[in-house]
Amino acid sequence: MPKLAQTLAALLPALFFAGMAEAEPVPAQITATAQALGQKALGDRWGYRFLEGLTSEIGQRLAGTEAEERAAQWAMAQLKQAGFENVHLESFPMTVWERGTESAAIVKPAPQRLVLTALGGSVATPPKGIEAEAVIFPTYAAMLDAPMGALKGKIAVVTQAMVRTPDGSGYGAANPIRRAGPSEAARRGAVAYLMRSLGTDSHRLAHTGALNYSEGVARIPAAALAAPDAEQLDRLAGKQPITIKLILTPTEHPGQSFTVSGDVTGRERPDEIVLIGAHLDSWDLATGAIDDGAGDAIVAGAARLIGMLPQHPKRTVRVALFGAEEMDYSGAAYAKAHGAEAANIVLAAESDFGARAVYAVQLPPGAAKSDFGAAAGRILTPLHALLSREPALRGGSDIEELAAMGVPVMSPRQNGLDYFDIHHTADDTFDKVDAAELSQNIAVWAGLAYLAAESDIDFRALPKAP
């Protein structure tokens, strides 16, 4: 046999088994029930009413505040009323950050007010503010290229715009500007840091979001400018020195946040868990409708429909409405509390990308080519979504630490082309959510969560594609 033919012959069994389905095909009745759940969800408005109640009766839900605690109590009551079991709160400690007042203005050469908002976790300016010359950098890389000490006594300003993408990858690429930028500016001597908001809109609204101060580096006040204001500074840059006055008065204190949990208990293997979640907290600039009230409504609405079936699925479907995601506590807190049962979580997924329609779903590695994947495709087709060939690897910030422990994750992909027009702004309100698109999300999540909970699939044991 020629050498190439021998090599191919040796590879064929591996290639065959890499794409081979799980041993037991998914029974047709399971797929039919999942499809029926999806169709029922399209006509159900419970999730939309849940979102309306959360954003109207509670409003903004800044992590660790009294408002977030009221939201947790409200959500717990909603889950109990909807028939969930084992509904409870899980508390964890955190440092609570609250915004205070914020203002900024160009003092010279052309006095005018600037629209901005403090980044979550920012320290305060002195009571009378900071007035200093601004150094404008058109890109983040340009600031990083500045030598140590070059910004001594200055306000560093990065005006780089975020790229609009359907999948949100532009946000991930630009995220270091907000997360690491303040400390990088401080390393170079800056006394404050301003950046163009991580957003894709042209509105005169600033986008907030958390920063991460580096250990051993001075903590300087940091804020995000509305896009038109960043562009205004670009136009003034280079003509003559720009002086900016900045006042931020945030405060911090010890507190606690809460995760709300409720189960649709499995009828045969209740200790095996399909975990679906979203985060309950929001920023304080608006009522958190797309970030992430919609996600709460999607996962709670999907699990509620599963719980209404004549019999529960074999495995437990657990809903977790995580606390303090925006301030980076949720994932670590949940993993710490539930790490011991990570081996029993057969699948985890989170909804945190608004309420636009799902167009594709990523399954754990190897699942797309399994019989489970074939059944998932049949569920998605009538909902105008498709099964992605790319596997889900990370999930989101609420479940990424579970994923690091080996928990398989699923990732429904939504149309996010305009998500970052609204994300983290004062415009994140209930009127931005389309009821039909929200229902399509709930349909996708209900069908796939039921399929995972009723089938016998072990995602960890699936052969992975080479």
Question: What descriptive keywords fit this protein?
Answer:
Glucose Oxidase, domain 1; 5-stranded mixed sheet; 14 helices; alpha/beta; 8-stranded mixed sheet; 16 strands; Aminopeptidase; 466 residues
Write a short abstract of this structure.
It is built from 14 helices and 16 strands.
Written description of the protein model:
There is one protein chain. The N terminus is likely disordered. The strands form 3 sheets. The chain has an 8-stranded mixed beta sheet with strand order 3-2-9-5-6-7-8-4, with helices on both faces. Strands 1-10-12-11-13 form a 5-stranded mixed beta sheet, sandwiched between helices. 35% of the residues lie in helices and 23% in strands. The longest helix has 20 residues. The radius of gyration is 24 Å and the shape is elongated. The protein folds into 2 domains: 282 residues, Aminopeptidase (3-Layer(aba) Sandwich), CATH 3.40.630; 150 residues, Glucose Oxidase, domain 1 (3-Layer(bba) Sandwich). It starts with a helix and ends in a 12-residue tail after the last helix. It contains 14 helices and 16 strands.
Please render the helix and strand layout as text.
Elements: H1 3-18, H2 28-42, H3 46-58, H4 66-81, E1 85-98, E2 102-108, E3 112-114, E4 116-118, E5 130-137, H5 140-145, E6 155-158, H6 169-179, H7 181-187, E7 192-196, E8 222-225, H8 227-236, E9 242-248, E10 251-264, E11 269-279, H9 289-307, E12 315-322, H10 330-338, E13 345-350, E14 358-362, H11 371-380, E15 386-387, H12 400-404, E16 411-414, H13 419-422, H14 435-454
Parallel strand pairs: 5-6, 6-7, 7-8, 11-12, 11-13, 14-15
Antiparallel strand pairs: 1-10, 2-3, 2-9, 4-8, 5-9, 10-12, 14-16
